[in-house]
Amino acid sequence: MPTSPQAPTPAPAATSATTAHQPVWPAIVAPYAEPQDHWIEQLGRRRNDDFAWLKYIPESGTRTMDNLPEPLGSLLQAERDYAAQMLAPLAPSAQRFYEAMAAHVCSTELAPPAALQGWAYSSQAGAGGQRVFVRSHSDGRVQTLVDEAVQSEGHVYYRATDHQASPDDRYYAWAEDLIGNDRHRICVLDTQTGETQVLVAEDAFGYGGLTFSPSSQDLFWIWRDAHSRPSRLYRSALQGGEPVLVHEETDPALFMRVVRTAANGFVVLSLFGPDTSEVHLIAAGQEHAPARLLRPRERGIRYEVNEWNGNLVALTNAGGATDRQILRLDPEHLQPQQTLAAHRLGVPIIKMQPFASTLVRLERVDGLHQLVLLQRDGTETTIRFDEPAYTLDLLPGQHWDASHVRVKHQTPAQPPRWLDIRLADGQMTEMGRETWSGLDTANYRIERLQARAVDGEWVPLTVLSRKDIDASQPQPLLLTGYGAYGIAHEASFSLPALAWVDAGYRYAIAHVRGGSEKGHGWYQGGCREHKRNSMTDFIACAQHLQQLGYTTPQQTVAQGISAGGLLVSGAMNMQPAQWAGVIAQVPFVDMLNTMSDADHPLVPLLRPDWGDPLADPVAYDYIAALSPYENVREAAYPPLLCTAGLKDDRVPYWEPAKLMANVRRRSTSAAPALMLLNPDSGHQESDQQESVLGQAARLWAFAQHCATAGKPPAA
Hints:
Distance between the termini: 35 Å
CATH topology of the largest domain: Rossmann fold
Number of helices: 13
Low-confidence stretches: 1-20
Number of strands: 38
Radius of gyration: 25 Å
Mean pLDDT: 92
Strand content: 25-35%
């Protein structure tokens, strides 16, 4: 449970180490991006985007260092060289962080689900930290399905997703990105012959973009268009033949997802945006027939559909249920017939998972997960855990007629463990866990605190530290957050976070507005004209930890990814002196220009979250007043480290490049602004251990240098 709000205690006096010394950086002149006038007239407003020339989109193919035009190519190579030279003195520190993480070797022992006949699917750590997907049979047989270390051989970049088995257990499919641009190919293994075919060679959409037909004869998959938007649903026969177009969506403001219902009765095509959705159903036995529309799209109404107890069930916000309710639908007219889980304000229903006997739902109370088992007779059993902070996941692909539901439970200090919860009464049995060599979870302390925001709201904070830390002295702190799209920043296990904490520091998550930790209202309180709340919440969390004596401004490093990069960069602009350093990974920081780009793959979809500066003057003005790139000012900025992927289409490299150029131009301090540009990646690093841990080690070495005045404590 969160701790009770309390008046902050005064911080201890800062030590001389945190006030008298500043980190020492190599005396190297940074590359210079020449400002070039680029005036834009929009809605009666005029602005000069004088670093617009840093943007480059090739006419075809993906960006590479070889096809960049001049002088852009030379500048970006100079940025890479400059970052490498500036960070070179930190290499020993980065190596220590890397070795600390790599020394923990993961082993997973996972039993098949209880009381289940047939195959059970799971994954485990393999060579280089990559995953090996296996299945085990109730008769004792074990079969390896996909070894990602093998699949990634010969590829600089590799990331896979959407692993799943066909209903008849013959086939196993997954999507893999070999380039870094989120355009996947789809592979299908025939477990009878042992042969793997590339069913879709390119331009497929992962992350909910494929599912087998109920008959196991076809694969439904989603195609990305030239703007990288998922816009078509195809059906491909597993035995060969040309793909068949099932549905084409022309509204760029909608995304697509395709799944099967739990009872294998339907393929469900969901079209959705932040504030609307539409579902089409393809029935088992009629898989080549046109899809049936369930409910036409209506702005403000979101719904998801599954089947349970012989009926369709909908998880929806209809009827003013902002934190969602579950309704049983009339099978003929598809109208609401019964409320199975009523709406409760501030208790968002995150997910539902039907089984033959029981409807399981995952919801959030006081910011923490709980599981509810609903029986056919209406009785409920609630499953909750007593840790200060934890995360629960309902695993996909569970058998419809299982007697237990399998969940994954983890905390910031405890690696994932798998629990089977008996559907009849909620009895729990641990069926396996990740075990990391050299890790003793008893060494760590997890705290759930609350910080008072400027408008009086209480913002949850999760803090991880070692129990043997010197609590009488402020310590270096890495504060992270996200706060966008209604996505909660979960308190999950993180090997990089533990490596930071094991160095004697603190790690904290600020659960700011814009996420969904406290329900739909928490999300709405941090988007559009309220987006500033996310940033002021983040600052309030940092100040609360400083007032408690946990850290000082000279020891606090902010870190965020993507929209979290917007969060920390905005907080940096608001209060530069609050931070010893800022790490913004693939940061969304050129808000006004990006949201004014109708060709961007995500802009039409995300207008409900950010506003439309092309059509709405009010939206233009509040985005212009907040966008980190436009709002860099003359002030003493802290050291700034940005990351970027050259092939990133979600948050392209020019966003951090433009921010960095503007910070260099306006900052009155001598602190560096650096960009780690990966020419081989997109929005995410490759799944290979060297990429994931290597980047974390470099970022942590930078953070340590900033927060310890360049003098990390002796081991």
